[in-house]
C-alpha cells in the first residue's frame, strides 16, 4: 500500500460525495473496550488449553490491554470481572491502569461460578442465595465507584435444565426484585447494562433469554438501565442488526459484547465468520447517529463497544488486536454508506438500488484509509506485525518461565 | 376402552389428590376457535393441491366449522379472514353461523395479498399505501362490530428481503402510527391481538419479528392490545412455553394460533410433531390460572385459543377435528399436574423430583377421561370415526360435483 | 474508477506474487447458467406478485437469458424446466437460443406440480404414480438429447408431513429403483445431478434430506451421477464450504444451484446475505483446482454453476445480472488467495496467520479488476446501468401491454 | 398402580392384536450400556459443579454402573473412557465388573484433552501428533482385547475454528489413513463405531460433521466399521429418526449415544425434552426389526444402545436410572405400534390414519406394563424409590467424607 492508494481512495469517495475528513475524524474517536478475561486462559467444556503466555494476574491482564491500546489507539479502557480481577486495592489497580494509559471500564459481576449458584443466583428458590447474589451485585456497584467506572455489565447464567425444575414466573419476579435494589444503589451517571442469552449454560430455559426480556426489565428499572447486545447470544437466523436498530429507536441500547459465531455462542474473533453482519450492525448505528431525535443520537454516542470472546486456541494479545481491527474495518465501511442514495432508492421503491447502495460501501477496500488514519495518529500502520516484532511480545514470552503446561 | 378404564383412571388420580370432577369441569369449558381459512385450500409455494371437498364460500366454511363443533363440543366460534370471507351482509353470515350453533370469532385482516403491499402495508414508504392499509384495518374493526366479535387479530407480512431495502426504524414508527389510529377505533371490550413472526414471507427482516416487538407495541397502545402467540413463528430452539409464561406474568397474552412445526412455519396439525411442547405450554397456563394475582388469572381466562394451520395434504374437516382433539388431550394432561408436588420439589432443590412431577402428568393416558367427558356432554366418543361415518361427510362429498381439479 | 485504479490493483497483487493475467484468464472462462424459470413470476405461499414485465413463454425466457449473457459475458447457457418450458419443437427452441448466442443447459424435470405427486413421485406408495414419475424423467433424458444438454438436474419435493405417513425405507428403495432405470437411459457424456434439500415442501421428512443421501445414491448409480449443492438447502449453521470440499475430494460435486438465505430456503440473490460464505465456497473450489489428483481437478473443471432463485419482489433481468455479478465478484476474490501463504501458516500451526491469509483476499476491492476484464472482453463495464439504459429494457416494457395484473 | 391396571392394559392391547407376551419378552432383552464418565463430575465451560457423591475412580464408577443394573435390569455393561479409566490392570477392572454382575462395554479413546491435540489429533498438520493419536487408538484396541469388549467407540473433537485454519481435504485424508491402520488392528468380531458431531468444540468446521461423513468413512474402511448416532449431535430441526432408518437400511447403524437436547449438544437426560422423538427413533428400529432382509434384522440386533450424558446439576446415579427408564418407556411404546395398521393406511394414502396409527402407541400409558415386567424379573418396581431408600445410596454418601468442595 502506498500513498497513491490512499489518494485514489480519497478521490473516489469524494466523487461519491463522502466527507473523508469527517470519516477519518469519526474513526479516530472510535473506542472499543477490551475485557481483562480475554487475556487469560479460556476453553470449552472439553478442554482448556493452557497458553503459556497468557496473563495470570489482574495487573498482567491490564498490561496486555494497554499493549492493545498502544498498538491500535482504539482501546483506552479495560473491563474487569469480579472476582477474577478481585484485588485488595482498586485504587492501586486503577493507578496501574492509568500509568499505562488506560482506564478501568465496565465492572462485570460473576454469578455463575460459586457452588451456591448451581440452580440460580438472583432467581434461586432459596432466599439466602438470592441475598448473597444481590450482595455481590451491590459490591460491584461499590467497586465501580472506586474504579471510576460508568457501567455495571450484568450477565446471568440463571436458567433451568428441565421442565418443572423452576417456577419461571417466580424466578422472573425474584430477578426484578434483586435488580431494583441494585438499581437503587447506582450513582448518578452510572448505568446498568443488562445482557441476555438464548441458551447455555442453562439448557431448558434461560431467565433472560432474549432482548425483549432484557429490554422489558430495563424499562421497569428506569433510565439508567440499558440493554447489552452480545452478538453471539441469539437463535440461529436472528437478524441482530434489526434488534440493534430497534433498541436504538427505543433509546435502550447500552452496549455490545462483540464476538463471532457460526453455530451457538462460539465466541470466536468478531468479524471472522460473517463480516457482512458486523458491517450491517454498524450501518444501523451510523444511520441512527444522524437521526432527527436527539435522544437517539445521544444513545448512539453512549454505546459501549466491548469485546467479549473466549480465545481457546489463539494467542491472546494478537487475537485481541485482530478483533478490534475487524471492528474498526467494518465501522469504516459503514461510514462510507451514502444515506441519501439509500433513502432515494427506498423512496422510489427500488429494491435493488437500495440494496446496492448499502452493499457497495462494504465492497470498498478500506485498507488505505485505515493506514492513513493510523499514520495520522502516530500508530503502527500494521499493528499485528508491530506486535509480533515488538518488545512487549518478548516480555510476554518471559511469562512462560513460570508456566507448568 | 370401557367404563372400567375410566374407573381405574379416576381411582389413580384421586389417590394422587387430583380433583377429577374439577378436571372434567375445566375440560368441558375449553373453547378452541377454528379458522374459516382452515377449511379452504392451501399449500406451499410449490403447489396448492386442490382438495375436491374443500369449502368454497364463507357459508360453507362456517358449515364445516359448525360440524367440527358438533363432533367435539370444543369449537363454538369461527375466525374469519377479510377479504376471503367478505360478504355483502355480515348480519347474514352471523345469522348463518348462529343457526348452526356457532358464532363469528376473531376478525383477521389481510394486508399481504394486494399488489400494493409488495413492499409493505402499514410500513410502506409510500404514505398512500400505508393509508390504504390503515383503512382496511379500520374496516375490520367495523366488521367486528357487526359480527359481535371481541378480537381483531393482526398478522403482518411486512418486512424486507435485502439489507438497505427499507428504513427499519421509520417502518417501526409507521406501524405504530397506524395501529394507534386503529386502536382508537376499538369499541370498549374489543381487543387487538398482535402476532409476530420470525421470518417468511420476508426473508431479511420482519417488522414484528418476535414477541418482544409485539409486546412493546401492545404496551405502547394500551390495555386492549395483547400479544398473539403463533406456536410456529419462532426461531429454532426457542422455548415457547417460557414466552407464554412471561406474557402471562405481564398480563399481555391475548391468545394463540396453534399449529405444529419441525423446521420453520410448517403449519402442521398442532401436537403432531412435539406433543410434549404443547403439554408444557398448557402446564404454564394451568399454573398461572392459580396465581395469587387476579390480573394474571383474568388473563388466563381470556386467552383466545385458535387453530391456524395450512392443511396441504390432509382432508380439511378431519384434520381440524384431529387438531382440536390434540389440544384437548394436552390440556387434559396439564390438568393432572400436581402443582404442590412440583413446588415442594423445587423448594427442596430436587431437580429430578420436580421434573418428574411435571412429566408424570404427561405420561398418563387421558383417553378414558376424555371419553367420559364426551359421554357426559352427549358428544360422539370417537369424533373422527363419527365424522367418517356421518352424514356431513357425505354432504361434503357432493361438493365435488362442481370441482374442476 | 479509472485506469489508475486498476494499475494500482495490479501492482499490489503482483507484489503479493499473484499472476494477474492468469486471474483474468480464469475470470474470462467463468460460466454461470441462468434458469429459464428465474425470468418468470414466482413468489411465496402467501402471494405471487405478478411482474408486468416478466417473460411469459419459453422463447421470451431465453431472450431474457441471452440479454443477461450479452450484458455480462458470463451466462452462455440457460437451464430449462419441463413442463414449464415444454414446447412442440425442442429443435426450434435450441435454434432460437443459438441464434441469440446461448445454448440450452440443464434439463430440470418437475415432479411436484402434478396432483398425482401429492404424496410423492418416485417414492409414492402407488406403483402407477412411481411409473408415471419415472416416465417423466425418461422423457427429460430424451429432451436432453434433443437440446444437446449434458446435465439432467433432479430435485425431488418428495417427503412426508407426519410421522408414520410413509415407510421411509421403502421410499428410499423406490427412489433408487427409479433412478437406476433413468441412469441406464443416459447417453455417454450425460450426467445426472442429484439435489438434496433439508425441508420444504415436506415438513416431517424429505427423502433426499442432505448431501449424504444424495451422495450415497450417486455412488450406487455410477460415475455419471453427481451431487448438486443448492446453497440454500441446508440446516441452520451448516458449513456449506466444507460439504463442497468434501464432495470435490470424492469427485462427486456436479454443480451448484446458487442463491442466498438467512433463514430457510429464502431463495434470495446469491451473495446478498452472507457474501463471505460464497467467497469461502470459491476458496475451496480454487484450492481443489490445483490438487495433485487429476480426478479432483477434472471435477472442478466440470462443475455446473447455476443460479436458482425465486425473485419475488425484484425486477427479473436486473436481479439475474446482479446475481451473476455477485458470483463473479467472490470468485475473483477467491482467485487472489495466496495458497502458499495459507499452507505455510497451517504448517507452522499459526491459526491467525492462516485465517488472515484467506480473509485478506476477501478484503480486496476487485472492482477495478472486473472492470478491466469486461473492457477486454468488449462488455459493458457497468452491466446493470447498461441494462437500465439499454434497448432490451425498453423491449421488455412492451410486454406489459398484454399484462392483466 | 394395581394388578387391575395391568390386566386392563393387557386386554386393550390384545384387543388391538398386540402379542403382549412378545412385547414383554423384547422388553426383557433390552440392554442399555451406561458410561463410566456419567458417574463422575462434568459441567459446562462456565463451571463444573462438584458433586460430593460422584464416583472418583474407575472402580467406583463401575460400582455405580452395577447399581443401576441392579435397580433396572437394563444395564449389564459399562463403557469406559481411556485415559479417564486407565488402570494398571484391565484384568482387575474386568474382574471387578464381573464380580458386580456387569461387563466392560465399549472402549472410548480420548483424543481431545492432551495439549498436543489443540489443532487436531488424527487430522493434525503435524505428522508426529497424528502418529501419537493413532498409537492411542491402537492402544484402545488392545485394551478392548483385554476387557473382552466388542466395540471401539470413536468420537473426534477434531475441527477448526476459522476459515483457512486447516486444509479440509488434507485433514480428511489424514483421518482416513489413521483409521485404516486402526481398522487393520481390530480382532474379528470387533467393531469400530464412528461418531459424528455438528459442531463443538470446533466452531468453524468439524472433520466428521454429519452422518454422511461418518458413513462414507465406515464404508471405505470395511464391514466392521459402523456409524454411531449421538442423538444430540445434529443441526437444529434435523430428523434424527430418518437418519436412523437410513443407516439401518444400509446396515451401517452400529449404536447410539443417547441424550437429550433443546438447543445444541445439551447432554440432558434422554427423553426429557422431546420424548416423542425418542419414541419415533424406536418406531423406526422396531419397524426395521421385522424387515424381510436378514442383514437389516441383524443390524438391529447388534445396535449398541449407550447413554452419553453430561449431568451438570443432577445426582449421578439417580439421573442415570431416570435415563435408562426413559429409554425403556419409549421402546415399550414403540413395541405397541400395529405395523399392519400403519401399512394399510399408507397403502390407501390415508395420511391422518397412518399418523394416528403411530401416535396412538405413544399415547398409551406403559406404566402398568413396565411394572409387571419388573416384577417378573424380580426387580424393584420403582427403581428411583428403591435407590433413594436403598443401602447403596447410603454407601455413596460416605464418599463425601473425603470430598473437598
TrEMBL record, chains A, B, C, D:
Example of a GO MF term: metal ion binding
Please report the name of this protein according to its UniProt entry.
Answer: L-rhamnose isomerase/sugar isomerase
Organism, scientific name: Cohnella phaseoli
Keywords (alphabetical) are: Isomerase, Manganese, Metal-binding
Q: Give start and end of each Xylose isomerase-like TIM barrel domain.
A: 80-266
Is Isomerase among this UniProt entry's keywords?
Answer: yes
Q: Pfam families from the entry?
A: AP_endonuc_2 (PF01261)
Source domain of life is Bacteria
GO terms of biological process kind: L-lyxose metabolic process; rhamnose catabolic process
Amino acid at each position: 500500500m502506498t500513498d497513491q492508494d490512499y489518494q485514489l481512495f480519497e478521490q473516489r469517495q469524494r466523487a461519491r460525495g463522502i466527507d473523508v475528513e469527517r470519516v477519518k475524524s469519526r474513526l479516530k474517536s472510535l473506542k472499543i473496550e477490551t475485557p481483562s478475561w480475554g487475556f487469560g486462559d479460556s476453553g470449552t467444556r472439553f478442554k482448556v488449553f493452557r497458553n503459556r503466555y497468557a496473563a495470570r494476574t489482574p495487573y498482567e491482564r491490564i498490561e496486555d490491554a494497554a499493549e492493545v491500546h498502544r498498538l491500535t489507539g482504539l482501546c483506552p479502557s479495560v473491563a474487569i470481572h469480579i472476582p477474577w480481577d478481585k484485588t485488595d486495592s482498586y485504587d492501586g489497580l486503577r493507578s496501574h491502569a492509568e500509568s499505562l494509559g488506560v482506564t478501568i471500564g465496565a465492572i462485570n459481576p460473576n454469578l455463575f461460578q460459586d457452588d451456591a449458584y448451581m440452580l440460580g443466583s438472583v432467581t434461586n428458590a432459596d432466599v439466602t442465595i438470592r441475598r448473597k447474589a444481590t450482595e455481590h451485585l451491590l459490591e460491584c456497584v461499590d467497586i465501580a465507584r472506586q474504579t471510576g467506572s460508568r457501567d455495571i455489565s450484568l450477565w446471568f447464567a440463571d436458567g433451568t435444565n428441565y421442565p418443572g425444575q423452576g417456577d419461571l414466573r417466580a424466578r422472573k419476579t425474584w430477578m426484578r426484585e434483586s435488580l431494583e435494589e441494585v438499581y437503587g444503589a447506582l450513582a448518578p451517571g452510572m448505568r446498568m447494562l443488562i445482557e441476555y442469552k438464548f441458551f447455555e449454560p442453562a439448557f431448558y430455559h434461560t431467565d433472560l433469554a432474549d432482548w425483549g426480556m432484557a429490554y422489558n426489565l430495563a424499562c421497569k428499572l428506569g433510565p439508567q438501565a440499558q440493554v447489552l447486545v452480545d452478538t453471539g447470544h441469539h437463535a440461529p437466523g436472528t437478524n441482530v442488526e434489526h434488534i440493534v436498530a430497534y433498541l436504538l429507536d427505543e433509546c435502550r441500547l447500552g452496549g455490545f459484547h462483540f464476538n463471532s459465531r457460526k453455530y451457538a455462542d462460539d465466541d470466536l474473533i468478531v468479524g471472522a465468520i460473517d463480516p457482512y453482519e458486523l458491517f450491517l450492525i454498524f450501518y444501523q448505528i451510523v444511520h441512527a447517529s444522524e437521526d432527527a431525535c436527539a435522544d437517539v443520537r445521544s444513545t448512539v454516542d453512549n454505546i459501549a463497544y466491548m469485546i467479549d470472546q473466549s480465545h481457546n486456541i489463539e494467542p491472546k494479545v494478537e487475537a485481541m488486536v485482530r478483533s478490534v481491527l475487524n471492528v474498526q474495518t467494518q465501522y469504516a465501511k459503514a461510514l462510507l454508506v451514502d444515506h441519501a442514495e439509500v433513502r432515494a432508492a427506498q423512496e422510489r421503491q427500488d429494491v435493488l438500488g437500495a440494496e446496492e447502495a448499502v452493499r457497495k460501501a462494504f465492497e470498498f477496500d478500506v485498507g488505505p484509509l485505515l493506514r492513513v488514519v493510523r499514520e495520522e495518529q502516530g500508530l503502527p500502520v500494521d499493528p499485528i506485525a508491530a506486535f509480533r516484532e515488538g518488545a512487549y511480545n518478548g516480555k510476554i514470552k518471559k511469562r512462560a518461565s513460570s508456566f507448568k503446561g
